[in-house]
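INTERNAL AUDIT FORM
Audit reference: QA-55
Scope: verify that the stored structure record matches its stored sequence.
Auditor: D.O.
Record contents follow.
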Amino acid sequence: MDIRRVVGRKIDQVRGNRSYAAFAKAIEKSIGVTIHPTSLQKYVVGERECSHRNLKAIADFAGMPVSWFFEPEVIQETPASYPNRLVPLMNDPQIIELLGELLPFSEQEKDGLLTFLEAIKLRRKEKKK
């Protein structure tokens, strides 16, 4: 398999549902490295080999090691892709209203919320058994 395509698919996975322009801006804002949106698109489709500098910036943005881009393809969610899955939840009027009333959270409240979410995760794992 062409390594450019493997790397390109991983870059696209990190991009999620963002446009190439929005992805480029997000990388620049987060990491401080400018990558032209057209370059990102060409990396994804395998028309251009991604430079080490740009791949390192994308890896840092994704919270993944550079080596991840060269690993066999396994569908794997990255920290950068989490916001894409949260959009429907954050657009729910009930959640927006409730969060508006509750924000800001204290550190103790954040810890309680994390404990609650971990309990949901554990319950789902137990149901799968």
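Auditor finding: record pair retrieved intact. The CA atoms of residues 72 and 109 lie 40 Å apart.
Action required: none
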